[in-house]
Amino acid sequence: MGDLGLAPGMILLPHPMLPVGDAVQGRTGGTGRPTVRVLGQYKPDRDVALLEELATRLTPKYNLEIVGRGWPAVNGWTVDARFVSEGELDELIATSDAIIIPYKRFYQSGIAIRALEQAVPIVGRAGTSLRELYGPQSRLLVTESGEQRDTSIAGWIGAIEHAVGQGRTEAALAGKLFHADASRDWAALYRNWILPER
């Protein structure tokens, strides 16, 4: 913990997570094409250039949608720039064939956890908290360090294709493992720290 700059005695816990539910097949929107989504509000650290470049190669094959408050227009994507309710967000997650997390850098994603709860595959950068959810060797994660942009885009496309093809199986397994670990760690916190205080 010291190497992370955390004080001695600090307890680091995984993001809490509900048990993994039954996987629901994604939707094709009547077009016969799988749906790939970006969900959540816009933040300056979102990689819009990446999304636009992906759209030039994915548009014929996939429905590309962004849903979340504050998003600008993104070439090649259908953007619904509004706040959505919890129930609608659950439905958007469940009916996605894959969800992309296009941050340049991030440390935790509530969308990723919620997607795992529904066995929906997430695609994102390998050097992020997604590595803790899937493991470093997952084909859903894109390694980019020191690579040329074209190689990086090919990595994203390969990860998206894997997500749509076989990603639900991997997401369901990762979700069950992460839920078991998180439940164990939170239960230990309760037993060791909270219960003795009562």
Structure notes:
This protein is an alpha/beta fold and 198 residues long. Strands 3-2-1-4-5-6 form a 6-stranded parallel sheet. Helix 3 packs across helix 5. The chain is globular. The mean pLDDT is 82.
Shape: globular
Oligomer kind: single chain
End-to-end distance, in Å?
A: 27 Å
Tell me about the biggest sheet? 6 strands, parallel
Q: What is the count of β-strands?
A: 6
Strand order of the largest sheet: 3-2-1-4-5-6
Radius of gyration equals 18 Å
- Runs with pLDDT <50, length 5+? none
Q: Kindly report the average pLDDT value.
A: 82
Percent of residues in beta strands?
A: 5-15%
Give a quick precis of the structure:
By secondary structure, the protein is α/β, with parallel strands linked by helices. It has helices at residues 48-58, 86-94, 110-117, 130-134, 149-194, and strands at 35-39, 63-67, 78-80, 98-100, 122-125, 141-142.
